[in-house]
Amino acid sequence: MRKLPARSIAALAIALAAPAGAQVARPTQNLQAPVKTFGRVSYDARSLMIDGQRRIIWSSEFHPFRLPSPDLWRDVLQKMKASGFNTVALYFDWGYHSPKQGVYDFSGIRDMDRVLDMAAEEGLYVITRAGPYVNAELSRGGFPGWLVNQKARARTDDPAYLAAADEWLTRINAIVARHQINGDGKGHSGTVILHQIENELALTTPAQRRYMDHLAAKARADGITVPLFHNDQGRNGYWVPETSKVENVVHGPNDLYAFDGYPGGTCTVAGKPTRSSAAPDWGYYGPGGAKGGASASPDTPAFLAEFGGGWFDYWGSNGGYDCNAIQRGKRFQRVFYGTNLANGIDIQSFYMGYGGTSWGWLPAPVVFTSYDYGSAISEARELREKAGEMKQLGGMIAAVPDLAGMVPAGAVTVSSPNVQVYHDRNPQTDARFLMVTHKPSNGQSDDSFTVPANLPDGAYSFPMRLNGFDAKWLLAGVTLGGQRLVYSTSELQATLTADGRDLLLLYGRAGEANETVLRYASAPKVEVLEGAATSAFDAAKGDLKLSYTLAGRTVVRITGGGRPPLTLLLADEAEGVRYWRRDTAAGPVLVRGPALVRRADATGAMLALTGDTKEATPLELWTPGRLTSVRWNGVAVPLKTSAIGSRRALRPLAGPTPVTLPVLTNWRVAAGTAEARPDFDDSGWQAIDRRGSATTTAKPDGEPTLVMDAYGFHDGDVWYRGRFSGTPDAKQLALFYGGGGAGMVQVFLDGKLVGQDELPGGLPRPITTAAPRFDLPAAAQAPGAHVLAIMVRNNGHNWDLDSDDFHKEARGLVSASLEAPGGRSFAVPITWKIQGKQGGEDLPDRARGAANNGGQYGERMGWHLPGFDDARWTTATLPAATTTAGTTWYRTRFTLDLPKAQDTTVAVTFGDTTTPRSVARYRALLFVNGWNMGQFIAHVGPQRVFPIPEGILNHHGANTIALAVTSDGAAGNALEQVKLVTLRSVKGGVPVQMVAAPSRPDQLR
Q1: How many helices (H) and strands (E) does the chain have?
Q2: 494-532 as b/e, with b when 16 or more CB fall inside 10 Å?
């Protein structure tokens, strides 16, 4: 058992007795809790430890299933690492791997061994989140389609559900076990350090407790030996380890308690960020108790399994991702993530780090195709401005191991009532962390003030400024290499020690006066090599104070004084973002200039750098002396030594070559609603019967089972054909259907459109079912046989966030009544047949998988595939002048020859990209080389721009776009202009191969 030193307990007592106006800590954590060990991973109440060393886990979320080009997984992981993260959290989507009960696929775009290998290769720890339920704004919350037909209640201990879940867990747990940091005992190991067994389980009945017990036991039986956790939605104190004695918590079998939160407000519908709420205290400085966050589990480290790194967007919004990137972006990160850190929350994972694309039929009803999320890495894989700030914050965490496991120190009372300081210390080294922000933290005033504090090296008072919504992460009493930092009002970004010399990179706000105090045994020599700074030495204390105003870069060299030589780089924020610190076998290196440094690898005297440039870029390096030669992306870089001791390239690194994209012409068009024709051959379709169904949506008694899932059709469009004999009662058709978010139904009678109904957009929590009525033409009453053809678009099954089987709400038709106004319902008998995606749960296209296709005629015939022969189709031009009711298919081919050794993101756009919606009312499924890359709904919006990852799009060869355009045929409701645009292009990137998949209809199984 490790015990906290007595002086730490005394310091905490002082903090608890803080003066009014200071940040007050509460005894929310049991700082005497024993260490628990799980192989190489251990923890106590203060932090996680790996190989006995305390670590701050600084993580961001990535969903490989939202990027169906596996080579680009490495691109995202490298960007996360370069942006300061040391860990990646990975959700695994059960439904993505299992189209049918007992059938699983972990190959190609579903190769989870590969993404876990990549994470280890890029130096990232991994938090695995395997469900069975993940939510993640996925259709069914990640449950497979076939599970919708299971009558057993999900997320309980029902034996049928547990058997289904065990199918999945047996397979995914084996993969996780192979990649855990402890190894699997069979020669495999990786970097998985934590494993989640369930997500946001909101019910806590005995059935859920037995379910949780089963999941934990299953993980252990399958060889997972790292700590297990559950993510509690919204800090309820649910599923807390048994060691917690806090009142009103719900205990579980998991080792760690984790929770999530998305505070900080949201953007307005006008796309304006808001600062209406302050950062919450969910740890040391919080209210405590079961609902206080970390306080629910005093014996385990504070753990935010999800903290808002953005927010999702919904059908019919005005388009919120760019605003979300600001709302939870620069400055928000300093204020909110810093408040977490000051509260002792040493395990933080930000959701999302890269959001990606909910391609095909992955999205739940609450989101459209783009899952950009406003994250640090955009859907187009661009590093946003907020990623630069995260690099700076993560740089400090990496540079100062003392930050891990801090506890509250003595309270600090600031001279301004508008400012507060969180003051923490490391019990072993007494190093200090001071998080300075407004009071409340969403304040936006411009304040100048002084901060008096008793620090490890003495009592000090230093001037500071906070201008607007901001926070500053300050250090004091820290040993960095061979240097002693007494305090600094600048923030630390990076440290280097090589060849007996130290380098510190400090940064702050441009135009603000800063000071840094270093401790020496005697007066050192101070040389200002670049910029401006003054220095004064206090011989009595041994303090060297440097004073400077941040503007670009100031470089100071300090020698003597009893310490190793030191180079200080004093930068404003914009200058600081240009630096990348990377570790190599020869020691750390610091690189200035490129838009991204992906890797730095040292072999002998050679430093090999890989990365990206957005333009011709100067290169400057600080490296160990043994590295005498440098290559950038494989090309030798001649260098010269500068006056400040760095080495600079003799000429700039080359930037990207301009990209020219073709205009999309030579369109071909074909009618795609064959199912509506009265003479259409539906002999191969399934007959509707009265089979049992697990749907939670009730149908009228005695009526047949119409819901699509009961017949093995779980995603996308489904068609019904109903035959009836004309009678005088056949005047109205009353439907009840489920269509998900912005779903729809189209009704045809004897080949002619009767009408359509669309579920409303513009609602963050959409209405997902409807009961429209259609007046039928007089022809329906004519004697003889008639055919109703009905297409329902299923835009996703609901999630199961409240553990109430909401994912089993009906999709497709629930009931269909032919009747006369005022008469009996279901007056006219109808004989139904149904057809969804080709093969149903038996996939013809296993490479692209269950999410790629629905039941449109063109999809079943392979019209979406690049090798389909459309030579007999009619030529067309866009924008289309006219259209017909139903679905019309458009296809075009084009060749790309984009610059090699360049990373370019190309997108397909529809119509006027400056507006979120069109006047025209239609929707289009977008297939690129056979891959369903999203749905455009012109009159609903907001998405008009669809990024297509390389590997799906062939950057050096032939490509095909196929569009399935559905309209009511009214004038003006026709396809608008479709274009290719370049969203970003850099010189660099990672090698990308085309993703293998069937290209011709005859290759489908």
Answers
A1: 12, 57
A2: bbbbbeebbbbbbbbbeebebbbbbbbeeebebebebbe
Contact 761, 747 (CB under 8 A): no
What one-character-per-residue DSSP string does 676-727 give? GSTT---TTSEEP-------SS---TT-----GGGGT--SEEEEEEEEEE--
Contact, 972 vs 343, CB < 8 A? no
How far is 153 from 147, CA to CA, in rounded Å? 10
User: How many residues are listed for the chain in this entry?
Assistant: 1005
Please list, in sequence order, all residues whose beta carbon lies within 8 angstroms of the beta carbon of residue 208, skipping any fewer than 6 positions away.
155, 156, 157, 201, 803
Which parts of the chain sit beneath pLDDT 70? 1-22
Q: What is the mean pLDDT of the chain?
A: 96
pLDDT digits (tens, 9 = 90+) for 788-828: 999 999 999 999 999 999 999 999 999 999 999 999 999 99
Beta strand 303-308 with 347-354 is parallel
Q: Which of 693, 680, 758, 692 is nearest to 723 (CA)?
A: 680
The phi and psi torsions of 118 (rounded to 5 degrees) equal -60, -45
Q: Are 591 and 648 in contact (CB under 8 A)?
A: no
Residue type, 403: L
- What amino acid is encoded at 541 in this protein? K
Looking at this protein, which amino acid is placed at residue 977?
Q
What is the model's pLDDT at position 22? 60
- Give the type of residue at 165: A
CA distances from 892 to 52, 424, 439, 647 (A): 59, 62, 58, 51
pLDDT, one tens digit per residue, over 578-608 is: 999 999 999 999 999 999 999 999 999 999 9
* Cα-Cα-Cα-Cα dihedral sign, residues 665, 671, 673, 674: negative
**How many C-beta atoms surround the C-beta of residue 594 within 10 A?**
24
Are the C-beta atoms of residues 148 and 794 closer than 8 Å to each other?
A: no
CA distance 109 to 357: 14
Q: Quick check: 119 and 193 in contact, CB under 8 A? A: no
Helix (H, G, I), strand (E, B) or coil at 110: helix
Q: Kindly report the pTM of this predicted structure.
A: 0.97
Pairing between β-strand 629-632 and β-strand 606-612 as defined by DSSP bridges: parallel
Cα-only R_g, the chain: 31
Q: What is the per-residue pLDDT for 1?
A: 32
Structure tokens that stand for 59 in this block: 């993580």
Write out the two tokens for 175: 């993969």
Alpha-carbon separation of residue 542 from 458, 485, 491, 524, 546 (angstroms): 11, 12, 22, 10, 13
- Of 768, 791, 830, give the one whose Cα is nearest residue 708: 791
Tell me what pLDDT residue 703 has.
Answer: 97
Q: For residue 3, what pLDDT is reported?
A: 38
pLDDT reported for residue 357: 98
Token pair of 716 as six digits:
């996308």
User: Each residue of 788-815: b (16+ CB within 10 Å) or e?
Assistant: bbbbbbbbbbbbbbebebbbbbbbbbbb
CB atoms within 10 A of CB 634: 9
User: Number of C-alpha atoms within 13 angstroms, CB side, residue 288?
Assistant: 12
* Residues marked as catalytic: 200, 306
Tens of pLDDT, residues 625-679: 999 999 999 999 999 999 999 999 999 999 999 999 999 999 999 999 999 999 9
Q: Per the structure block, which two tokens stand in for 963?
A: 């569009």
Residue 879: asked if its preceding bond is cis (omega within 30°), the reply is yes
**Ramachandran bin of 435, using left for φ above 0, alpha for ψ from -120 to 50, beta for the remaining angles:** beta
Q: Which residues contact 653 (CB under 8 A, 6 or more apart)?
A: 593, 594, 613, 616, 617, 618, 619, 632, 637, 987
Among residues 837, 726, 735, which one has the least CA distance to residue 787?
726
Please state, in angstroms and rounded to a whole number, the distance separating the CA atoms of residues 599 and 118.
13
Check residue 15 and give its pLDDT.
Answer: 45
**C-alpha distance from residue 1003 to each of 441, 716, 866 (Å):** 59, 22, 12
